[in-house]
Design brief:
Helices cover about 40% and strands about 15% of the residues. By secondary structure, the protein is of the alpha/beta class. The radius of gyration is 18 Å and the shape is globular. The two termini are about 20 Å apart. Bound molecules: farnesyl diphosphate. Keywords: Magnesium, Metal-binding, Transferase.
Length: about 250
Amino acid sequence: MSNEPAIVSSVAPEFAVLPQHLGVIMDGNGRWATSQGKPRNEGHRAGVEALRRLVACAVEFEIEYLTIFSFSSENWARPADEINAILGLMKRFVASDISKFVAHNVRVRILGRREGLSKPILQMIEQAESRTAHCTGLQLNVAFNYGGRQEITDAVRALAQDVQSGKISPEDIDEAAIAEKLYTAQMPDPDLIFRSSGEVRLSNFLLWQAAYAEFVFFDEFWPEFNRDIFVRIMEEFSGRKRRFGGVDG
Ligand code: FPP
């Protein structure tokens, strides 16, 4: 949406700027587990602990928006027992952490396609969103059953329907109109996206919104994520020059 600069931090004055919107691809749970001689699902369990550390960092550093990639529309291709383990972890996470989110003024939104999701999953989503709907601090977006191309496709389809019904004309379709049909409507674009485990790709995450994002890829597996890594990444981001296609002013 906007190309506003990231925020100048009052909580962490050692950084010139902090991202207003941070996107995180939590990768490497399985490889971490394998490297420890543990089953893959242990990696996801440890990944949830790392996620708690990430949310704590985001709250501490007063990041406004945090979008995490928790389950992609492609992840359904994994073995059923792994999918069930991840869904079970998410369910327990919602049950155990929602009251803490409310206490820390964290609002949770789930970004992704809802069609085809089972009733218990839809109930979990509804519970997480409704119980935190009044929270005005960190806006935590959980990308679940999410795919960036699907999101853009859905937005284009919604605009086509608006044209067909006469609500808008084709000339009204511009970047802002598309952005308003995305799951992130009314939110700033991510300033920074980081990914763990040494993989250097976006994997269909926030494709439209990432147009001007900075990227940081780091080698540690997601379960190893901690505050030191967060600070290291913020230092790196803080030193980046963002020109949004222009030249230095
Ligand atoms: C990537 O590691 C991780 C996932 C696909 C799932 C992430 C899920 C969680 C951290 C837990 C559940 C989420 C919430 C919101 C509680 P991978 O399995 O792709 O690792 P690999 O690349 O080493 O195989």
